[in-house]
Write a structure and sequence with these properties.
With 162 residues, this protein is of the alpha+beta class. The protein has a single domain (5-151), classed as 2-Layer Sandwich (Peptide Methionine Sulfoxide Reductase, Chain A). The protein has five helices and eight strands. The chain has helices spanning 14-22, 44-47, 69-76, 105-121, 148-151, and strands at 5-11, 27-35, 55-62, 87-88, 91-92, 98-102, 131-134, 138-140. The strands form two sheets. It has a six-stranded mixed beta sheet, covered by helices on one side. Helix 4 (105-121) links the parallel strand 6 (98-102) and strand 7 (131-134). The longest helix has 17 residues, at 105-121. The radius of gyration is 15 Å and the shape is globular. The termini are far apart.
Length: 162
């Protein structure tokens, strides 16, 4: 059995983020859901209003011998615009914020280092507004959201590799 590590990231609508990440070498599994908001057991009909404080996020299970957490965070910064506060393309609201939800002090340190690296690279012309915060709780989204773009290949997606 491969080594496994978990990462949780938010970069706008979770459908496109999941679709891009699932294709990366070393990613073993993806799951979309909601994290770090107010109230237990959030549901899409409430999260989409932007009033619950939850972020649409993707939990990524990966093999660290094939994909490092640092490289996963570098990819995160290439699949969305981390300079737009609470927005990706037409999706607007706190539920679409750019965020890295760390699960260990080591992940926090790595996320902060990679964020500084990306900021210093000049790739993004505006300041990065990505939130780096402790993962408090992740709730799995409704089944119809899981693997959404696999089930609906012509579905909405505002993410692409930059």
């Amino acid at each position: 059995m491969a080594n496994k590590e978990i990462a949780v990231i938010a970069a706008g609508c979770f459908w496109g983020v999941e679709e891009l990440l699932r294709k990366m070498d070393g990613v073993l599994e993806t799951e979309v859901g909601y994290c770090n908001g107010n109230g237990e057991n959030p549901v899409y009909t409430l999260v989409k209003t932007g009033t619950t404080g939850h972020a649409e996020a993707v939990k990524v299970t990966f093999d660290p011998s094939k994909l490092s957490y640092a490289d996963l965070i570098r990819a995160f910064y290439k699949l969305h615009d981390p300079t737009t506060l609470n927005r990706q393309e037409n999706d607007i609201g706190t539920q679409y914020r750019s965020a890295i939800f760390y699960v260990s002090d080591e992940q926090k340190k790595t996320a902060e280092e990679i964020t500084k690296e990306v900021e210093a690279s000049g790739f993004w012309k505006k300041p990065i507004v990505t939130e780096i915060t402790l993962l408090k709780k992740f709730w799995s989204a409704e089944e119809y959201h899981q693997d959404y773009l696999q089930k609906n290949p012509n579905g909405y997606m505002c993410h692409y590799w930059r």
